[in-house]
TrEMBL record:
<keyword id="KW-1133">Transmembrane helix</keyword>
<dbReference type="Pfam" id="PF00528">
    <property type="entry name" value="BPD_transp_1"/>
</dbReference>
<protein>
    <submittedName>
        <fullName>Carbohydrate ABC transporter permease</fullName>
    </submittedName>
</protein>
<dbReference type="InterPro" id="IPR000515">
    <property type="entry name" value="MetI-like"/>
</dbReference>
<keyword id="KW-0812">Transmembrane</keyword>
<keyword id="KW-0813">Transport</keyword>
<feature type="transmembrane region" description="Helical">
    <location>
        <begin position="176"/>
        <end position="198"/>
    </location>
</feature>
<dbReference type="GO" id="GO:0005886">
    <property type="term" value="C:plasma membrane"/>
</dbReference>
<feature type="transmembrane region" description="Helical">
    <location>
        <begin position="64"/>
        <end position="90"/>
    </location>
</feature>
<feature type="transmembrane region" description="Helical">
    <location>
        <begin position="236"/>
        <end position="259"/>
    </location>
</feature>
<feature type="transmembrane region" description="Helical">
    <location>
        <begin position="136"/>
        <end position="155"/>
    </location>
</feature>
<keyword id="KW-1003">Cell membrane</keyword>
<keyword id="KW-0472">Membrane</keyword>
<dbReference type="InterPro" id="IPR035906">
    <property type="entry name" value="MetI-like_sf"/>
</dbReference>
<feature type="domain" description="ABC transmembrane type-1">
    <location>
        <begin position="65"/>
        <end position="255"/>
    </location>
</feature>
<feature type="transmembrane region" description="Helical">
    <location>
        <begin position="102"/>
        <end position="124"/>
    </location>
</feature>
<dbReference type="GO" id="GO:0055085">
    <property type="term" value="P:transmembrane transport"/>
</dbReference>
């Protein structure tokens, strides 16, 4: 009983530490400027106000939200298509150097993304793609090492007899992938889609580096621009953070089983 009690205490403390920043975002978003200066950060403002949310949505920020939706949709579609083709090649097709090429590609996950930002930016600048949608999407729309690893691991668990039977009937690799394997890959595709949506929606560093105009600005960069050199409107910033957080919270609540499944697919199988 003592061990169980200590375990629950540790879990409760960890949950509180994890959730406390989100609580501050919610409380600050519904405070007026006067309430922010006269109350402690963890004390709600009474009466709560929605003026900060109205101010945030009355400017150009709905356009930035739309930009983020477009970027997320394109990156997710690209990941599902190109990652599936690459994973199929690494899992099912036989060619010289397949294993070496795959593990060299997966090894790039060990390199921090911040290390590759400057080379990527220089490439985009030489191609005249800075501050364009092409420059924003190009580095990630063709797939990522994690996504290919996830799909390859799942494809390797499918019985090879399905492919052999299809080949006897005259099916080619593309037909086998599209008509036989893809319907069986729905759990893995759903997992990859959820992970891509979350990572794309929360992307900040690359959009900050490669874009500077209003037409390609995403919500994370827009919120960061609210911090000025003279002062910061924390109420408006927290209102933007709350609006940006809500879609991801909905995705997590309804799709958390896919997020957990990604750990099982890559770790156990």
């Amino acid at each position: 009983m003592t061990k169980r009690l200590l375990l629950h205490v540790v879990l409760a403390v960890g949950a509180f530490v994890s959730l406390f920043p989100y609580l501050l975002v919610v409380l600050t978003a519904f405070k007026s400027q006067g309430q922010l200066n006269t109350t402690a950060p963890w004390v709600p403002g009474l009466p709560p106000t929605t003026a900060n949310l109205t101010r945030f949505l009355s400017g150009d920020f709905p356009r930035y939200i739309l930009n983020t939706l477009v970027m997320t949709a394109v990156l997710t579609a690209g990941q599902l298509v190109f990652t599936t083709f690459a994973a199929y090649a690494f899992a099912r097709l036989r060619f010289r150097g397949r294993e070496v090429l795959f593990w060299l590609y997966v090894a790039t996950m060990m390199v921090p993304s911040a290390v590759t930002m400057i080379p990527l930016f220089l490439i985009m600048r030489e191609l005249d793609l800075v501050n364009t949608w092409y420059g924003l999407l190009a580095p990630y729309v063709l797939g990522t090492p994690y996504g290919i690893f996830l799909m390859r691991q799942f494809l390797r668990t499918l019985p090879s007899g399905l492919e052999e039977a299809a080949r006897i009937d005259g099916a080619g690799p593309l037909t086998i992938l599209v008509r036989i394997l893809l319907p069986l890959c729905r759990p893995a595709l759903g997992t990859l889609a959820i992970i891509t949506v979350i990572s794309s929606w929360n992307s900040f560093l690359w959009p900050l580096i490669v874009t500077s105009g209003e037409g390609t600005r995403v919500i994370t960069v827009a919120i960061a621009t609210l911090k000025g050199g003279i002062g910061t409107d924390y109420n408006l910033m927290m209102a933007g953070g709350l609006i940006a957080l809500l879609p991801m919270l909905v995705v997590f609540v309804f799709c958390q089983k896919y997020i957990v499944r990604s750990v099982a697919l890559t770790g156990l199988k």
